[in-house]
Amino acid sequence: MLKIGDFSKLSRISIRMLRHYDEIGLLKPEVVDDLSGYRYYGVSQLPLAERIQVLKSMGFGLAVIGEILEKYDDPRAIEEFLLVKRRELEEQERLTKERLQVLDNTIRWLRKDGNLMNYEVTLKTLPQRYVASVRQVIPAYDAEGMLWQMLNEETASQNLKQAVPCYGLAIFHDEGYKDGDVDVEIQACVEGSYNDTEHVRFKTVAPVQMASATYSGSYDQITKVNESVARWIQENGYEFDGPSFCIYHVSPYEAKSPDDLVTEVCYPVKKK
């Protein structure tokens, strides 16, 4: 039998954690002295201690580790636990990369001119146009690509002719920002006459007066651009008059990197 201190050294688990594992039933000592309360472990428990440490290093919580250990003799069950954790880690990696990109861009802007609000806002009118449109509720804003894919696939046989200029834009119809299930419409300007498909509608869109700001680079600038547009609208006696939209002058499909993107953020407005 091993005293808790000796087992701690051999397993590389602190005495404090061994006591905690005992309390939650994850790794109980083989013997507890009734008089002294001393815990004694067996050498045969070292492989179990190693499994716990390995699973912790993978990022599993203690509750899940307990579930895994209960099914340790079932390879398929263990594999499912590992696959779920892998997907979680991949998502964490994706989010970490996005956050690093935001940090890098912010540092770059600060070094450039120390002013994150330097976006030129203009008042203009987007003219009447004939468009191919797809409007759907999609899981998230970054799933917009599925709408463009839908448009391209369903109209491929009609050989659409792009209008000049060809505005490609996305309209955000929800009243406010949403974390999921967002109502988005995409439009591509075309010339000619075409037949509607299952999801694509062809229609004429009326002119719209808008306050807009164009920026280059990744989409994580959008909040600062919005602030600039909102400030301009307030200072010039206008008010919002319809759902916002973005015009993609250089879209993700055309850009080699996020730095190559060119996006115009547009808010329909009217005089107060």
UniProtKB/TrEMBL annotation:
Keywords of this entry: DNA-binding
**SUPFAM superfamilies noted in UniProt:** Probable bacterial effector-binding domain (SSF55136), Putative DNA-binding domain (SSF46955)
Highest taxon above the source species: Bacteria
Q: What is this protein called?
A: MerR family transcriptional regulator
Keyword Disulfide bond on this protein? Answer: no
- Supply the CDD domains for this chain: HTH_BmrR
UniProt key word DNA-binding: yes
Q: Which PROSITE patterns match?
A: HTH_MERR_1, HTH_MERR_2
Q: What's one Pfam family here?
A: MerR
Record-level Gene Ontology MF annotations: DNA binding; DNA-binding transcription factor activity
What InterPro entries does the record point to?
AraC_E-bd, DNA-bd_dom_put_sf, GyrI-like, MerR-type_HTH_dom, MerR_fam, Reg_factor_effector_dom_sf
Q: Where is the HTH merR-type domain?
A: 1-71
